[in-house]
Fold each of these.
Amino acid sequence: MLTVPLVVISLLLSLLVIALVRTIAIRSANTPVGTSPKAPIPGLPDFDLAAKHLADAVAFPTITHREWKKTDREPFLGLHRYLTETYPLVHTKLEQLDTGALNLVYRWNGSDNSLEPALLLAHQDVVPASDAAQWLYPPFSHQVHDGYVFGRGSFDAKGQMIAIYEALEALLAAGHMPRRTWYIAFGCDEEVRGTEGAAKIARYFGTTGIRFAFVLDEGGVVASGFMPGIDRPIAVVGIAEKGDANIKITCTRDGGHSSTPDNPTALGILGAAIWRIESGKQTARITSVVRVMLHTLGLHAPFPLAFLLLNLWLFKPLVLLLFGANPTMNALVRSTCTVTMAHGSDAPNVVAKQAEAMVNVRLLPEESTDRTYGWIARRIRDKRVTMEVVADAVRSKVSRLDGNSFANVSEAIRTTFPQAIPTPYLMTGGTDALWYEQLSDHVFRFTPANMDTGELKRMHSRDERFSIGNLGKAMEFYMTLITQDSRKV
Ligand SMILES: [Zn+2]
């Protein structure tokens, strides 16, 4: 008779053998798609001239203000004049649509009206550079050094916008005629939630009854070192984004003079609540988006990692544990909460009568808002602290991967970045794309550029830059996407 440990060991061994057989079977049934043959695209624009155009565009300080009325329109109007002069074919051969505010929207008519149009997006506005004096080069000036264009917005997202203009101008100069109609939209206020930009543009399309085969906005990049164990760069294409909500937590107590305190103060009670929120972790789960990402990576990963990723039925707890140890990966499998703003009294010797803090919440798709709000309340576990939802999350849909749309974008990625593995991905941050989800079942978020974490950290931070090589890659990607699509349909 077998002893209990022997039974357990043989059961474990059987499970591992099943996992091994599955891994081999899945990998041999899914031969990774090879690099597509290079599309015969017209000659790429001159990289150095394109870099100068990007540097010129960066020099317009198109900073948006949360109160739209306070936004200075002049830099935007200057940028528009510059773009009109620099890209004459785009501005004479494409139709420009008036969607209000400071948006730039174009239509390039295709030859086949039976095809649904596609929409390319980027945004004109940038975040401020409050620490300008500490930048290597002034953030709003024409700076090209050591193979990079430096300045605020060079990466987010004027690099993408200029790459699209360059690609269009080159295709028009070569006499390219697309089969599908392409729309191109550059919103004016993505950095402050897009209510004047993307919202108005999407409303325009909605009222004219236009639906898109796919929408492509900024988003994931071609990332090196994205996942330990996979050497090849991974092109992460966002197919959904996490919900973004803000909850104010408040504690009200007697104030008074700090020389005769009656502790705990409102601030002290609130601080303890904050600590309890931040020291907890919500339940980790693998959503449909992350499941398809892990499956894709499992097809390309070296064997030990593939063994884990392709057998989540057995290794899910281990994968979740590994993800939990890294903040970037953790955000893919959990709804998260963090405190971003706090206020007590206005003087050092005054005890706050009221203390308040803002909890920024990022919600997984397919997970209810109430679940996270309930979790926060349970972590606070103090009736003296109240909660108020000041900005509820708009929930993102999960884009579909069937049909040709995702395949077409992936093919253009494989052609432009032959080493990269394209994979669906969950965006942890938000973009304009959210506004367009009603107009297409295929809304993708991808920035065609090679980035490592060091480069990404400069975004919204000091010494933002975009390499001329990346500008070239981005131009090639858009030209490939448009010409491949015209050949295929
Ligand atoms: Zn952006």
Amino acid sequence: MTLRYRKILLGVTGSIAAYKACELVRLLVQDGAEVQVVMSPAAEQFVGAMTFEALSRKPVRTALFDREVEMAMSHIELARWADAVVIAPASANCLARLAMGLADDLLTTLCLATRAPVVIAPAMNTAMWENPATQAHVHALVERGVQVVSPAVGEQACGETGPGRLPDPEYLRAVIEDLGTDRALQGIHAIVTAGPTREPIDPARFISNFSTGRMGCALADALLERGARVTLIHGPIDIPPSSDADCVAVTTAAEMLEETLKRSEDCQLLVANAAVADWRPCAPTDRKTKKAQEVRTLELEPTPDILATLGQQASRPYLVGFAAETEDLEENARAKLRAKNVDLMVANRIGPNHGFGDAETTLEVVDADSVTRLGPDSKNTLARQLVDHITARLSPASSVVDFLHAARRTTHSG
Ligand SMILES: Cc1cc2nc3c(=O)[nH]c(=O)nc-3n(C[C@H](O)[C@H](O)[C@H](O)COP(=O)(O)O)c2cc1C
């Protein structure tokens, strides 16, 4: 599982345990999450906003009525932005206001406005925690689907011993990591190919393309989040791939095919996102071609087609291909789907000024008789949506894992 790219809205309220939230931010950021801290005015009595800003690398939000930040990202946009809202520590006062559905400061308003899962980790004096009022508020929140992390038992800052301590940041990090996770692909081995390939002309030059590998890495992350074991076979890319994936670095199309075939035997899902070069020089040279030689023609031959090769195998994984197209996306994608005998084709539009490397994009997911449009959105969000789409298509009703293991395809299901 990974926290990479997860958008966590962390609420910090007026508890003596607020200092532990600093370590929590550090752990979440270290794991690749984006953390937006929202402090109650009382929380600022305990820890300075600047500490959180340094750790999260984002300005802390405190006020509901702030014209400047409302113009940039309103409280409603912030509520939509979050993949999860976590309040740690949550004061008794905060629990009461949430239970009542009050919206009289930024944090409580966000909690009402968000559709993301909400987790609260209460921290307070034992008597405050055991007070029937607090317990009634906690029960009301649990009834409404809020996840409440039970406070730890032990010696408290006030000198009392009992329940009320904020659990360790490491424990809270693990709770957040598991949040709302649908592990539908547990037990599945998925191969993702990503990035460009390079086809050498001579030791100094190559043919390649503009692919960055960002979408492939996002897909690997999304599959890991769903519980799959992921092998990421990638060409030369600059972004660091997830450390939770089994990464295999290759350079050429031939190497990518070889590494994919080697591993495809025990794989149930192949997502071929790499922008594999279509052609390669027929006769790459061992010596650098001199400029003075005036080479005007480069003889090219087609590279091996990874998807088509796998599509022809008698027993093959569920195949998802990608097609970068400049026009007629759906038609071109469907033609490729048939020609290569794959299950799903994902088309994205490229053009002179957009496509590879864009932060946001749209996808058209094409099968034999339907098309689904996703986006425009960030590649991370689209990757999650696409993995959900694949998961749903694999098995609308039954267990995905059983289905996949039973149905290593012997014929085109098209
Ligand atoms: C030194 C000190 C420590 C406090 N610690 C806690 C605490 O751990 N938990 C809690 O619920 N309230 C605690 N309080 C009380 C809250 O700060 C107070 O109820 C405040 O109104 C909470 O506001 P908020 O929920 O908007 O952050 C403490 C107050 C003081 C002065």
Amino acid sequence: MSRISKADRQLQLQREEAGDHLYANRVRVYPKSVHGPVRRFKWAVLIVCLGIYYLLPWLRWHRGINQPDQAVLLSLWHERFYFFNLEFWPQDIYYLTGLLIMGAVTLFLVTSLIGRVWCGYTCPQTVWTDLFMWIERLIEGDRNERMKRDAEKPTFDTVWRKASKHAIWLGIAFWTGGAWIMYYVDAPTVTVEFWTGTASKEVYFFTFLFTATTYLLAGWAREQVCTFMCPWPRFQSAMLDEQSVTVTYQGWRGEPRLRGRRHEGDSGGDCIDCGACVTACPTGIDIRDGIQLECINCGLCIDACNHVMERTGRPAWLITWDTLADQAAKAEGRQTTLHLLRPRTLIYISALLVAVVVMTAALLMRSSVGLSVLHDRAPLFVRLPDGNLRNGYTVKIVNKGPNIALFELRTDGVNAASLAEADEGLGPASRLGLLVKGDSVGTFRITVAGAPDRLVDGSQGIDFNLRNTDTGEQTVYHSLFMGPR
Ligand code: SF4
Ligand code: SF4
């Protein structure tokens, strides 16, 4: 069983010293490998997350001729986001806003229920750091071996191991950066272009940028990102309360700590102060000090301590997942129940439900037609020989369908309005028929002539009504018709 070693003591002293100063050198963390159900679950989540990230760009999705066949593609060139059967245009940006709101509220809800599991299991920083640490352990050995290597003068064995580790880290970082690019450019195409030197300079730049950031953040910065760079730990405490389930040391059971082997008649608590929970922690903290900003709720200290409990013949789960309220009750010999539904979680659930309903309704009612109308800046209006006024507009019609479509445009709000389209020689007429190619935006210069009778301060409202003659879909754009003050 591991006792706190001389090297650990030195690390602890360094940390204590660092705590007294505003600036301090980094105290390196050498997490020890652990085995157990929490670690196995964490591996499973890691494999699923990385599998989705690396393989999703290669999933094909048939959309028809001349359409991208990548299931998930944020095409900056086409200004489109393809997500399986859904296709989002820049005009649909509010869906992204809705998704971000839903993601944020879900994160608040999960944090208030089960603490920082996002940080401990699915945050990209955690996932890639875990992967990089696994590579490090494979090549340089476990905690004690690594600490020894770093403390001693470098030997040939140490140098080649470190060089191999960094080479593999860079390889993974490059794969990660490359996979990121594949979400923006067709994966098979960009792969061929990349290796034949025909990809755009943006592709090379962003691949190497994401390679560098992955290598630095997961290989070098590691827990420093969670502790010092990420804003989330700073305000996640606002979502936690005494009913949130977090990784907790059962002090009432573990104290008083009694270091070392137990003897018949010893009266101490279950904690033998072996330090296994501290050495297993990827952020290098002692969970026995209570909930801390650095704790990412990964639960690896649980596995480490369970192993110790098993070997000392004591009940497992001295460190466990529990609420502070339950722990306080157990310390007094009482039982409590888990309160999942409480004001805080009910507010988050309600907000999430509202967001889901609004988003679903918006998606179901989503129009395949878009219209925007821009009034000419100058002249604002022209008086015609018959006494009517004429205004000019730039009309943009978005045809989100795959085929060419005929759109009918008319106006409401101005007496006896007649429309004309200068470029195509259409009109004047009470309504215009405008053709727009499939999957594109048609731009038209339109004039509207009429006799406005409700001018206030030189303007009155006018509605542009657009109808797809094939599907019957309609949309309205409210604009202004200008006249003399
Ligand atoms: S204290 Fe435990 S749960 Fe928290 S980060 Fe360290 S190992 Fe993970
Ligand atoms: S809590 Fe468990 S792992 Fe941590 S020092 Fe005590 S006995 Fe060891």
Amino acid sequence: MSEIADMRVVNLWKRFGRLEVLKGLSLDFPKGAITVVLGPSGCGKSVLLKHLVGLLRPDRGEVWFGPARIDSMPERELGIVRRQIGFLFQQSALFDSLSVRENVAFPLREHGLEDEARIEERVMRVLSLVGMEESRDQMPSELSGGQRKRIALARAIVLEPRVVLYDEPTTGLDPIRAEIINELILKLADTMGITSIVVTHDLVSAFRVADSMVLLNEGQAVLTGTPEEFRQTTNPVVGQFLRGEVSQEELAKIRRHGDHLWAQRP
Ligand SMILES: Nc1ncnc2c1ncn2[C@@H]1O[C@H](COP(=O)(O)OP(=O)(O)OP(=O)(O)O)[C@@H](O)[C@H]1O
Ligand SMILES: [Mg+2]
């Protein structure tokens, strides 16, 4: 694992209306490594990923892709950056009216590849990488959740990206299908040297794939470290998260909200 950052965010701030989501978040994503981003639901993990591909712009702070600063990059230049980043969305987001083959071919056609033989060859290569070549003529509606994730992953890597962002790749899958996805993440990082950023709630998957981990809470990184450092930390917020406990603030919030609802009853 190299320590050169392939992507980085520096002092990132983002609010939606009155909701302050990212509060000065700084993180490095080392080249060729798998970084797992953990954190409670709603803490801004998907928002962070969207900043990394320029789908969201920060209120303040910087987003870097290698030597290029992308937070202030004009939309037309962002196309070149996005071509090098595969994004596996939280909902697999396949096109329901397109076959598996056409779903995977879509980014190639978008980027102007017209040679049908080359398209076929690249589609089949990534489908075989995710073990789904037999499904090439099926429609997304005929596939299970785990199969859909694998097709979405094939589509995310068909342009041979340098970086892949995975948003909850194993959520909602049974342990066997989740393990297939974990192995694919490891294989892609290994064989293609891809820099991987994996957002997940799934602690089994997190510890299985991570070279390094970060826990987000309240818009900042609570801890960055190796899986071993996470296992051994005495940081109470990390401990609570790993044990699946609800924090005292969270409980107080729920109680306040409950009282408020109670007060409103006729
Ligand atoms: N485009 C948007 N407009 C307004 N609010 C948004 C927008 N995108 C995200 N948010 C809010 O920002 C907060 C963080 O959202 P985000 O989707 O990043 O959470 P998350 O950490 O990915 O959660 P989960 O684990 O449930 O996927 C949430 O409160 C969400 O409602
Ligand atoms: Mg999310």
